[in-house]
Amino acid sequence: MIVPYPFLRPLLNVNLAWAGVDLALFPEDFPDGELAATGITHLAQHNRSLPHPLTLPWLMPGDREIYARNSIATQLPVEQLILTLPDGDLDQDLSFLRHPGFRIAAQADSNATLNHLIQRKADWAVLDARQARDQVSPLELARAKEAGLVLVARQVRNNDLLAWCGARGFNLVSNEFLFRPDEVDGTVPDPAKLRLLKILSLIVQDADTRELEELFKQEAKLSYNLLRLVNSVSLGVTTRISSFGQAITLLGRRQLQRWLQLLIYAHQFSEEQQPNPLMQQAALRGALMERLAMAAAPDKAEDRDFRDCAYMVGAFSLLNILLHLSMSDILAALPLTDEVQGALAAHAGQLGHLLAILEHGDRGEFALAVPLLETEGISPTVFGALQIDALAWAGQVALA
């Protein structure tokens, strides 16, 4: 059975924290609505089976017939389902969706279409950020907010659009603006982050535990944030970790190294309270890279070094954006394996190909990602399940 490939991406709230999941299908004009619905149902079933399922709202594509014919409603709590219908469907009788409490969304690209959503009492309005800035009046956006519409902006590709969305009262935004290193070229790198990069270099080299402990004692906030990070994720231990030595004992050096790979994205040496969305995105990339690598190379699934390399490629793939340095400069400072270096520098090897899939997906370039998934032998059903697993894991990673 052939179904479209699902791509799930986080939606951010005004504080840049994860507040929803946007599901896109490719190809979006898949001719068999029943198969598309089957694929969505499989995603929902897999999420329901997880020990810690995603509890964020899901913005799902489709039409009224898809939702009339399948069992999505039995797989996700009704409060999680946001059904994105074609604008024309809003003129039909939607009582069969309204009765169980589903929320209904539709896309808007002009004052007229947004006003139509207001008149039809839709719950959510989905807009292309650039198109909305050019074609939708602030007055109409304000009317939509007053009418109770949740405003969602897609294609938020730069910080200017992010600021515009914030000023216009959008509730949720997509995260494409995170993947724009060209916007920060020439910025002086933060010396504190470079110090953390040196610590990370010692971790990668498997430095002596006592040497690491001394470094952590010198950076009190680093130690504090490490413990908060480690304790934020369910690790199957009943004891809360309260010291660096205990973290090493309970986690082991491999797992500790993974937390440190994420910790560099946290606001270590500033008083900023707003979360850094790059941290959760790095966690997501690391987790998904590891899962994709095991799916694409099942003969290596038990190879811990291979899995560690895959996770590292994902977690480190955003360092150039965080540190305002070229990837080549960053890699020169880290003693990484040739496999990891090649993947990060030039998308070389299997890990490089898998990283390219994630990067295309994050940029909405689904037509480029799907052929690579097919080449690696990863089916739509498997790809969807792996994304759910990674999202659920990364969703727990936070420094609240």
UniProtKB/TrEMBL annotation:
TM segment ranges: none
Annotated ranges, domain HDOD: 189-382
Coiled coil segments of this chain: none
PANTHER family: CYCLIC DI-GMP PHOSPHODIESTERASE CDGJ, PTHR33525
The protein, known as: HDOD domain-containing protein
Naturally occurring in which organism (per UniProt): Azospira inquinata
Lineage: Bacteria, Pseudomonadati, Pseudomonadota, Betaproteobacteria, Rhodocyclales
